[in-house]
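Supplementary Note 3. Input sequence used for the single-chain structure prediction.
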Amino acid sequence: MAIHLRQRLPVGQPLDDGPSIMAVGLSSLINFMLATLAIFQHHGGLGYDLMLVGIGVGLFSAEFMRWAARRSWLTLISATRDADLAVHNALRLSVPTAVSGLIVLAVASFLAALPTPQALFDGVAAGARESAHGHYLAITFVTLVNQLFWFVGIHGGHILDTFGLDLFVAVPNLPGGYLVNRSLFDAFVLMGGSGATLGLLVAIYLQSRSGSLLKVARVATLPAMFNINEMVLFGLPVVLSPLYLPPFVLTPVLLALLAVAAVSSGWLQLLPVSIPWTTPPFLSGWLLTGSIKGVLLQALGLLLSIGIYWPFVRRAEARRLAREDRLFRRAAEVVLGNRPSKTTTIRRLDEVGSISRRVLGLLREDVRHGRLLLHYQPKHDCRDRLLGFEALVRWPQAPHPSVSPAMAVILAEEGRLINELGLWVFRHALAFKARLNQSGFAGLSLAINVSPLQLAHGDFAERIARLMAETPVQPAEIEIEITESQVMPDDPVIDSNIQALGRMGFKLAMDDFGMGHTSLLHLRRFAIDVIKIDGSLTRDVLHSATNGDIIRAIAALGQARDIAIVAEFVETAAQKQALANLGCHVFQGYYYSPPLAEEDCLAYCRRQPDEVEVGAA
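The predicted structure, written as discrete structure tokens, is reproduced below.
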């Protein structure tokens, strides 16, 4: 616990000035030995009951050593900086370790010397025996003790077994014959485990369609049928959650009073049997009463627990969705902000990394099951003639609206999924182009994006050649756009693949030109046919003279090398005219059309003037 916390807590200073993992681990071990030494003098030995002590010691040790390492008056002993780092840390942290141990020993000795709660339990039991309604008082007290200890992560049943045995003894003058009948308590109060959490699970199933609540409920359902609910308590979590405290306490108290009332009124008769506490609900009701009444009482208790937990589950689900929305938006910002970068988001150990890995896993599954779509955005020339389309991948089942296609592609590159995704896009785009040709629009070109990571594979050009052989489409009809979502290294494999694509007859385009790290170097390395100016330049061309100068320079460079210049993100007529005046030849953006589904593309083509194919040529 201490080592894990040390790795996650920021030190706030250079790494060598924080406590080392070894120092924190040794300190926590020493502190635990001192704590158990103090406890042994008053109570038993090592065992399950010391779990909480171990957790508390681990948390304290990591936090204290982190705090102490930054206090010069505690790090009195030190070696010179050129000494061995292990020796330096051992000397520097020796005093904090000793102080930490003394604090733990003092606190453990004080707590161990405190009186046990046995007197409280004995007093409640004595008062209940003398009261005409002592069974109501006793079962309410037992239920509250069980729930409140469980709420802080301590096994309430162990507390009752240790201090409350007098509350479970037979008392002849009370209805039912007991202050608290243990079998009744287990069967009618703890349905699904402490807190009657079977009702909580049902409420989650009824309100959640996805997410962590539903996942925990699915894992916890089978154990809960045997009244084992640690997965729910620590998985949601219910333990230490202010949101779940009211229903966690209120539900079993009401069920306890309902069960005692049913027995006291004579409506329900308990058989003189003892059944295991792991007996599933409804079966336990039948075995304990020998009638359908026991089952009906448990069914009523389940409905009550569902109703009590219902608004709290709804609030928890709303909080989960809000938190998940923040995490997805943050992850999207980080992923898109890393572009292009050598760092990978999916390797991060924080929540952004967790969300990114989750998105990648869902994307991988949807790629392999063919759940992605392709949309196609038109491209026009200066005279507004349709020249062709660009194939753009769409992910209709993305887990959150913040997960854009650009984010999906970047994660696919980080997770080594880009080759599989790229070939899927290429295959389906070629099939669309073949259907476009059959519909009478063979003169229109189709642009398909390719990542540098795809080009880095030695057999990429061969794979594309095999795909082309399966369709009637000619390479000259396809424009391969090389994206710069990843920095393209000076790799002979990449050069070889690009040259092979050029020999096949494909047109080569550089996407996002003007803002990449090596855009100008690509013109020297490759025979480029088309340049697509980065959208960050074209969007503000009407308001930024600098952007205009850059676009004019790119257009002049393209004219000198006989390269077509494409402006994307064109949204208004004024923007299009300004870009045309600067030397751009082709325009793509919402001014003409958003990306279209295949059936809408065909309708779009049919609405164009008759000279479409002339424009394409």
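The two ends are 69 Å apart (CA to CA). The longest helix spans residues 292-337.
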